[in-house]
Amino acid sequence: MAYVPGFDCDVFVSYAHADNEGPHGERAGGWVEALAEELQLNINRRLVLPKDTVKVFTDYELPTNKPITPELLARVRGAAVLLVVMSPYYLASDWCRRERSAFLDVARDRIAQGRVFIVKYLDVDRREWPVEFGDLEGDEFGVFDPEIREKRPAGRFDHREPQFTQRIYALSGKIAATLQRLSREAAGEPYPRAAEQGAPRVFVARATDDLESREVELRNHLASSGLQVSARRHYGQGSRSAFEAAVRDELAGCSVFAQVLSEARGPEVDFDDQHRLPVLLAELARQSGLPIVQWRDHHVDPSRIDSDDAHRALVDGAMACGFDEFARRVVQAATAPRRPPPAPRPSGVVIFVDHLPMDSALAEDLRKILFDEGFDEVYLPVSKGDPQAVSQHLKQLLEMADGVIEVFGSADAASVVSRFITNKKHLRLSQHEVAAQVVVEGPPGDDEKFAEVAHALGPLLVVQSAERLERAKLAPFIERLRAARARNV
């Protein structure tokens, strides 16, 4: 008897027998067998059930030289969830093809219902995947082995390998959530409530591997709230244009962008060797003008992310709170009355937000506010590279800027004054009026040098370190900027 009412078994594992090999090629105690046993154990633990309540069925006890039987096909059709072990052997197996067809023939929308999961055992070109699986992401079980200098399945030589058990645990969370949803639907419980036609749609960004279970939890919560949720898609990462077009197409039908973040930078993309997927998705969401709600666990310390400034800023800007509170905020944002379309963005207005490297977080906050106010061209200084090129870049920005903001956060007063003297020299070369503002994080105290810079450059705006920068505080600067721009034109 299955955990999900109305089904003969809960999870059916479809795989090629060639992939069920033990550490030394033996069939007994093979890789798929270890996967199924550990998966069943973790699913039951997550659902707080006796260990044999949810059963993960495989056919590894059947002879490999026998044709697929009607009984086995019936078992496939009666499964609540299909788990595919993807590999070249799977694609070449007629047995696997018939299992897949039997499952999908019962209800062609099972993939859309989230009832098909894919374990990526060995790399397979996505173009060779069965067409039915086109939009499924799959769970990566491949790891790079430095000893053999190539990628191999996690757990291939040792079923106790941490990377193997960690990936199984993440997968078990997604399958457990799906089984719980199917069980409650079968029992007539209003969980999740089906989204009505025209209900707001939420773009849930693909999570990093360590947060996949949180992503599933969020998706289920949104569905239970009657909201539509974007499909978890592969966005054609072979080229930037194809990737951005696919993401923008998905964003266009959504009311809010939701993202769960951690210190993990996420998967690489082929067209950008500096930014990872989470940063790219968030930037496209920002450009779309959608409300953005991001979450990180309160134990995550953004300051420990020292290899990727963009990812550190992304994580630092996320709300650190309980996950239930985050999910509630996403629902609120999705169901809030839609804002009127933004006014046309002014063209040709250049703003330079100058800061030293240790104050990048505050500078990023300022840039976001200015973009929301309708200013597209907001630039930050380059801090790495050839010193002469960096100096030239700073000079060009100051000479072309319509507005300049000097940010003083963690930087000491001596560094601030030195930077100011350099900037003031370049500003004299500007051929037009420049609006300016000095932003200090934390009280400037009695240090007269801060007051000296503020008096020479522009009004002083103090932001207490414990508070968020409020856009209303920048209103006077924005008005001066627009007035200066009008006079310059």
Task: Tell me about this structure.
The chain is an alpha/beta fold. It folds into three domains: 1-189, Toll/interleukin-1 receptor homology (TIR) domain (Rossmann fold); 192-341, P-loop containing nucleotide triphosphate hydrolases (Rossmann fold); 350-488, 3-Layer(aba) Sandwich (Rossmann fold), CATH 3.40.50.10140. Helix content is 39%, strand content 15%. The chain has 15 helices and 17 strands. It has a five-stranded parallel β-sheet with strand order 2-1-3-4-5. Strands 9-8-10-11-12 form a five-stranded parallel β-sheet, sandwiched between helices. Helix 6 packs across helix 10. The protein is elongated.
List the defining traits of the structure above.
Rossmann fold, five-stranded parallel β-sheet, 489 residues, alpha/beta, single chain, 3 domains, 17 strands
CATH architecture of the largest domain: 3-Layer(aba) Sandwich
Instruction: Please tally the β strands and state the result.
Output: 17
> Could you name the CATH homologous superfamily of the largest domain?
Toll/interleukin-1 receptor homology (TIR) domain
How much of the residues is beta strand, in percent?
15-25%
Evaluate the radius of gyration. Answer: 27 Å
Distance between the termini: 77 Å
Tell me, briefly, the overall form: elongated
Mean pLDDT: 78
List unreliable stretches of 5+ residues: 61-66, 191-195, 341-346
**Alpha plus pi helix count:** 15
Q: Give the oligomeric state of the chains in this entry, treating copies of one chain as homo and distinct chains as hetero.
A: single chain
Structural class: alpha/beta
How is the CATH topology of the largest domain named?
A: Rossmann fold
State the helicity in percent bands: 25-40%
Q: Give the CATH level 1 class of the largest domain.
A: Alpha Beta
Side-by-side strand order of the widest sheet: 2-1-3-4-5
Number of domains: 3
Question: What's the story with the biggest beta sheet?
Answer: 5 strands, parallel
